[in-house]
Design brief:
Distance between the termini: 136 Å
Number of strands: 0
Strand content: under 5%
Structural class: mainly alpha
Radius of gyration: 41 Å
Number of domains: 3
Largest sheet: none
């Protein structure tokens, strides 16, 4: 700096050269690179850290909470009729194993078993829903067909009863009553959305309807 507080021409030129030095750009690049690496490391720690801490049992729900979740998942699956599905039974086994591990102080293993039980129970519920949908479709077919057969029997009875002896008409009335009752069991199950009940009563209803039809046809006058 020149006398009087003013830059000399030489000082001004030296300052400009200092600002344009290429190594200043390299320093800035290196600094930015280090910042980027540090950001990546921090991101990895923030992402992996909770997973590791959860795996170690430091973070996350306690084993008792995981077991309670498994119980709720099993209860939900059971309401959809999953109790007879093999994967549901596997879920119960894992839930019971989780309880034993928790009582033995093996928290991490208990939590894993409980989480597995929850996943299996969820899968069992899905399978039960699919099975219920299939059963419902089959039940609707059975209901429609049996309803048609009962209506056809009513028409056949109306065409057969006139002209018969009183005793024969009484026999046919009893037979028709029994037939309606056998089909009524299936119809009631359908109204209650008991699809398994519909499918379970189908065979007996069809057998009774077939017998009644044969009897009516044999007594029908030409």
């Amino acid at each position: 700096m020149a006398d009087g507080g003013y830059y000399s021409k030489r000082d001004w030129m030296n300052t400009q050269v200092e600002r344009r030095r290429p190594d200043r750009h390299l320093v800035a690049v290196r600094l930015m690179r280090r910042i980027a690496i540090l950001a990546l490391v921090l991101s990895a720690v923030l992402w992996i850290g909770p997973l590791v801490l959860t795996e170690m049992g430091v973070l996350g729900p306690r084993p008792e909470e995981c077991i309670a979740n498994a119980d709720r998942a099993l209860a939900a699956a059971r309401t959809y009729g999953a109790a007879s599905i093999p994967v549901f039974q596997q879920a119960e086994h894992e839930r019971d194993r989780a309880r034993e591990l928790a009582r033995g102080g093996q928290a991490r293993e208990a939590r894993r078993a409980a989480e597995k039980a929850t996943a299996l129970a969820t899968e069992a519920q899905k399978q039960a829903l699919v099975r219920r949908s299939d059963s419902q479709q089959r039940a609707e077919v059975v209901y429609t067909d049996l309803d048609k057969q009962i209506n056809d029997l009513e028409k056949l009875y109306s065409a057969t009863a006139p002209g018969l002896e009183k005793q024969q008409v009484g026999e046919l009335l009893s037979l028709m009553k029994m037939t309606r009752q056998s089909a009524g069991v299936v119809f009631l199950a359908y109204e209650q959305k008991d699809w398994n009940g519909v499918l379970g009563g189908e065979a007996h209803a069809r057998e009774v309807i077939a017998g009644t039809r044969s009897k009516l046809q044999s007594m029908k006058r030409p």
